[in-house]
Amino acid sequence: MTTEIAKSVTTCRVCGAADWQEVISFGSVPLANAYLDKPGPEEAYPLELISCRSCRLLSLTAVVDPQALYRDYAYVTSESETMTHHMRDVVRLCRERIDAGGLVVELGSNTGNQLQLFQQAGHPVLGVDPAQNLAAIAERRGVPTVADYFNEKVATAIAGEHGRASLILGRHVFAHIDDLADVLRGVKALLTDDGLFAIEVPYACDLLERVAFDTIYHEHLSYFLISTLDRLFTRHGLRAIDVRRLAVHGGSVLVTAARMGSRWETDERVGELIAYEKSERLDTDARYEQFAARVHALRRELTELVRKEAANGKRVAGYGASAKGTTLLNICELTSTEVRFCTDTTPQKQGRFVPGTQIPIVAPGDVSEQPDLYLLLAWNYAEEILQREAAFLDAGGAFIIPVPEPAVYARQKVRQ
Ligand code: TYD
Ligand code: ZN
């Protein structure tokens, strides 16, 4: 199947301006979640980051056809301890404000594990996710799911059939959507008068501070500041009423919005973060130039480190065949010559290959020979993984943690 670039971005999807700063270009890179059944010719697409000088949305230049990206999607929400703990926090935070027993709708609901927690707290729930394979899994676990994209049309139909929602939640999906206006019209059609729209997105401040260049891939069309989201919501008759910084996925924010005229007061955290963004000069070209320079330096250092270890006879493997991992390996031009295999707990990925690299993905237990060194491609789970791999570390194994600068983590010593 040929994947199409649906369009090249010309005007800003938040503010409509067309004045872009070119931040960084990684050349052509394959799609991060397009794991291969066997290595072979692959398509690659331009991966370029630009910044809107008017609202400071960070955007990719290319929008890949979502049909091709999401119909049969290999990304399965992690059931790791870190993520389950986080999802419980999301339930707790949202339930501080929403009606007991109110309908909760989630866009990009994946296999339904977040909604199941709302269900257990006594809420009727409905998932909306275009990936038919994942919607079927969610249905089997008892989470009703509409296998479609969330937009005005679908939201209006849901409101007609199920009534209006007290909470519409979108975790790590908003940055994947090109037509944000259609989604926000849908939100307004479906939300009760004082209902809440809560989104969790990677935070652009964290991307810059952590030099998390591997979170830049084709699925992530947008990288948001709070000031940018605030402007988007205002344009669509909504307003941000609260924001929380969260550790998940390398630094995210949970932003809660409500209708412009609703009863909610705006928490002071919103204004504080907007002021912080200004103090960090995130409204200037210079800050993005500095980021690009750090990315180039990190890429060089990391590639050299891995090549040096491999050349010294070390068996290097990847830990977690994450989408970030695909991006990192491709951008650093690392292949099966340096990284022998990647371990991953996701059955849908095992037995396949990391796009663009010829690196095979194996189940953690299937490792016939232990590596000497793991490149931590799921660095967002570093704490949990380093604890779990205590025996590997005790036996003299080590991890390379790639960001914000390459660091080797071993039992006795921490080398930079
Ligand atoms: P994830 O962090 O969800 O992000 P993304 O794909 O968006 O970059 O991916 C983590 C991957 O790592 C996922 O495929 C599951 C895998 N994984 C392991 O193999 N072992 C682990 O202990 C953990 C926490 C994750
Ligand atoms: Zn803009």
Automatic annotation (TrEMBL):
Domain (Methyltransferase putative zinc binding): residue spans on this chain: 12-70
Pfam families on file: Methyltransf_13, Methyltransf_14, Methyltransf_23
Domain C-methyltransferase: 248-404
InterPro entries per the UniProt record, alphabetical: Methyltransf_Zn-bd_dom_put, Methyltransf_Zn-bd_dom_put_sf, MeTrfase_14, SAM-dependent_MTases_sf
Protein name in the entry: SibM
Record lineage: Bacteria, Bacillati, Actinomycetota, Actinomycetes, Streptosporangiales
Gene: sibM
